[in-house]
Structure formats: structure tokens, C-alpha cells
């Protein structure tokens, strides 16, 4: 093939220490030479929740630049791509393997990374600034999720974002979460209220933290096994409604993806009262595939 070039990539499972669980991610350790359109086509070809491309950073304080694509669009920020890409950077030595802190340059801005060393490092990201948006009609939310209004907790569903607008809907128990499915007509009502694309995040408080599912069909992701970008906002939403402790230094987890057979464990750490000094989201990553794509 005249003029063909090969690009190496890794596939890793994020927010798990078990292969074939968690949220799969493709990482291109050297994305130089790829046009934006080609990156998007590659992400569609691989058809994972996200694919990332590592590039030189435009910010002196950042180790590398990272561009993140779902099968249908580029993202400002996403959690499992940030954690998984950080693992690959350390594993490949692109970032020194003994690094305990570094910063990634993403579309949302600089994203600080912290590493807890070990046989398999626990990697933490600092959630970008969180903003609370409008509240939504509970009956419309129940309809969109295909559940009975009695399955909802008495907590107003609300849009919260750290880069990706996410509608949080609190349910009474795990069974209600497992029964959710996204009704297209109901989703359209929510989209009209938001006037834009949204992610729909259903969860129930548990003694460990939360049991969660996330739907984002407009991003090319029918259901996401693990959504790190929404987990910091989840913690903020839960603290606002006293669904979990917001004491500084507290840690809890969000279990996500279990219903779809991709169990993911997202760790959350609160710094300062109700996260005033930041909310970290962390997890393990399991390497799976080393491959080459020829274009």
C-alpha cells in the first residue's frame, strides 16, 4: 500500500483489575500526523466508548496533550480515558514510571493526575470545576428511564457537569437501577428541556457509595460501563442532598456497568468539606491488547 503508515495502539480495561471487565479504552501513544477527521474515523472504527490520541502539549506544565473521541464526537474531558491514558503513559515510560504526579493537557484544560504506586498503580484524576444546572421534572425522568415514578428518591433530578452535561436521577435501590432503560421519546423530552445533548445517569445510594448506570446514545454510547467524568459530579450531587458523607478525606465508590456485564469500580476521594478542596476519581487499569493500525 503506497504511502501507508502504521500507528501502534493499546487497549486497556479501566476501573478494574480484571481483564474483560471495566470500561475498554484504545490509546494511541503517538498520535502525531493524524488529522482530526482521521482520529474521529478511527474512534468510530474501534467503536469503544472512547479512543485517545497522545500529542505534544501546548502547555509547559503538562506532560502531554490528550485528545478524546467517542465514536461520534470529540470530548472536552472524560474520566476513564484520562485514567487509562495515564496508565499507558506510565507503562510506556512516556511519563517516568516513578512519577507520582503529572498533568495532562486536555480540551477542558490541565487535568492533574496523582499516582498511588504498587504492583498495579491506582491512578487518580482531579475533577475539573463542577457546575450545577437546571432541575428536571421527576415524572419526565421516570418516563425516560422506563420506570415507575415510585422508584425515584425524593430528590430533584438535576443537571451537573464537569465538562460533560449529565442529568443525575436518584433511585431508591439497585433493583430500580437495573430495571432502567432509555425510552427514546422520553429522552427527547429531556433533550428539549436541556436544549442540547445530555448524558443520563441513574444511581441508587448504597452503604459503599453508589450503584450506577449511565446512558449517552447521542455520544455514540448506548450505555457506558464507567463514566469518570460524571463521577465527581455524582459525588457533589450526593453530598448536596446528604446521600453520602461529604467530610474531608472521606472515600467511597461508585459501582457501574454491572448490569451490562462490565463491572467497574470508581473510587472517589473528597478533599475539604463537601469537596471544597477538590474531588478525585481513581481506579485501576488492566492492559489487554497491543496492536497496530495501518492507514
Explain what this protein looks like in three dimensions.
The chain has 2 domains: 132 residues, Diaminopimelate Epimerase, Chain A, domain 1 (Roll); 147 residues, Diaminopimelate Epimerase, Chain A, domain 1 (Roll). The protein contains 6 helices and 18 strands. The chain has an 18-stranded mixed sheet that branches. β15 and β16 form a beta hairpin. The longest helix is centred in the N-terminal third of the chain and has 14 residues. The N and C termini lie close together (9 Å). The relative contact order is 0.18.
Give the structural class: alpha+beta
Strand/helix succession: EEHEEEHEEEEHEEHHEEEHEEEE
Mean pLDDT: 95
Rg (CA only)? 19 Å
Distance between termini? 9 Å
Structure described in brief:
By secondary structure, the chain is an alpha+beta fold. Helices cover 21% and strands 37% of the residues. The model has no long low-confidence stretch (mean pLDDT 95).
State the main characteristics:
295 residues; Diaminopimelate Epimerase, Chain A, domain 1; 2 domains; 18-stranded mixed beta sheet
Amino acid at each position: 500500500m503506497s504511502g501507508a503508515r502504521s500507528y501502534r495502539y493499546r487497549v486497556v480495561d479501566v476501573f478494574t483489575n480484571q481483564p474483560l471487565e471495566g470500561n475498554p479504552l484504545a490509546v494511541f501513544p503517538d498520535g502525531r500526523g493524524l488529522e482530526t477527521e482521521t482520529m474521529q474515523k478511527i474512534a468510530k472504527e474501534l467503536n469503544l466508548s472512547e479512543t485517545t490520541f497522545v500529542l505534544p502539549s501546548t502547555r509547559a506544565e503538562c506532560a502531554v496533550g490528550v485528545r478524546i473521541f467517542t465514536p461520534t464526537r470529540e470530548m472536552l474531558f472524560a474520566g476513564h480515558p484520562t485514567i487509562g491514558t495515564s496508565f499507558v503513559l506510565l507503562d510506556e515510560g512516556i511519563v517516568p514510571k516513578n512519577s507520582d504526579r503529572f498533568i495532562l493537557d486536555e480540551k477542558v484544560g490541565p487535568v492533574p493526575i496523582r499516582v498511588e504506586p504498587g504492583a498495579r498503580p491506582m491512578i487518580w484524576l482531579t475533577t475539573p470545576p463542577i457546575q450545577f444546572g437546571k432541575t428536571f421534572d421527576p415524572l419526565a425522568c421516570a418516563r425516560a428511564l422506563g420506570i415507575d415514578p415510585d422508584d425515584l428518591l425524593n430528590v430533584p433530578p438535576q443537571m451537573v457537569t464537569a465538562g460533560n452535561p449529565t442529568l443525575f436521577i436518584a433511585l431508591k435501590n439497585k433493583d430500580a437501577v437495573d430495571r432502567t432503560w432509555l425510552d427514546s421519546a422520553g429522552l427527547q423530552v429531556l433533550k428539549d428541556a436541556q436544549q442540547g445533548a445530555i448524558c443520563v445517569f441513574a444511581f441508587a445510594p448504597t452503604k459503599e457509595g453508589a450503584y450506577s448506570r449511565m446512558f449517552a446514545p447521542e455520544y455514540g454510547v448506548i450505555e457506558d460501563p464507567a463514566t469518570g467524568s460524571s463521577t465527581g459530579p455524582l459525588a457533589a450531587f450526593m453530598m448536596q442532598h446528604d446521600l453520602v458523607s461529604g467530610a474531608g478525606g472521606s472515600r467511597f465508590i461508585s459501582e457501574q456497568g454491572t448490569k451490562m456485564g462490565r463491572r467497574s469500580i470508581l473510587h472517589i476521594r473528597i478533599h475539604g468539606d463537601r469537596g471544597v478542596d477538590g474531588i478525585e476519581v481513581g481506579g485501576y487499569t488492566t492492559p489487554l491488547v497491543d496492536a497496530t493500525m495501518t492507514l
